[in-house]
Hints:
Strand 1 (about 25-35) and strand 2 form a beta hairpin. About 15% of the residues lie in helices and about 60% in strands. The protein has 2 helices and 11 strands. It has helices at about 1-20, 95-100; strands at about 25-35, 40-50, 55-65, 65-70, 70-80, 80-95, 110-130, 130-140, 145, 150, 155-160. It has about 160 residues and is mostly beta strands. Strands 1, 2, 3, 4, 5, 6, 7, 8, 9, 10 and 11 form an 11-stranded antiparallel β-sheet that branches. The model is unreliable at about 15-20 (pLDDT under 50).
Amino acid sequence: MKKIMIVLLILIMMPSLWADDVFSKHSLSINLGGPGAVATFEYQYQIRSGEKSGFSLTAGMGNALLMFSFPVGFNYTYGDKNQLLIGAHFVPLAIYSDLFGSFLSADSDSWQIAYAFSPRFGYRRMITGPGGNSYFHIYFAPLFGFQGGFFPSGGIGWGVYL
Length: 162
């Protein structure tokens, strides 16, 4: 009976020995650039992960002098190590209008809240190493203001799976 239990345990644990592409559902990335920002921190939660595709929800925070962005949205990735990155984000912005004028908003207060939409198109390279799994990505993420206005932006960054 003991031998049968040991054989069953070994059979149950064997697939994990060959599972070299297992990534955590949670990741954090730091980006130079981003939707309406000079630097962005972003959290990503992987909802679905297939052999070649993945779908994740993201939330982040960015800063560009006296303009703060809070992109919330989703990313879709397709590929193995080299991935196509496509996403869409709703981006609330806190803008100091004395510095940025009436960019993306018609209000005239010193601090104003503006809302924008930001599609994301880019490339992601998965990196598997002894310290854990990580990725490098580069993307184009222009801002389209809901009250008009357009701001071309993009980002380059590195992320790590937790």
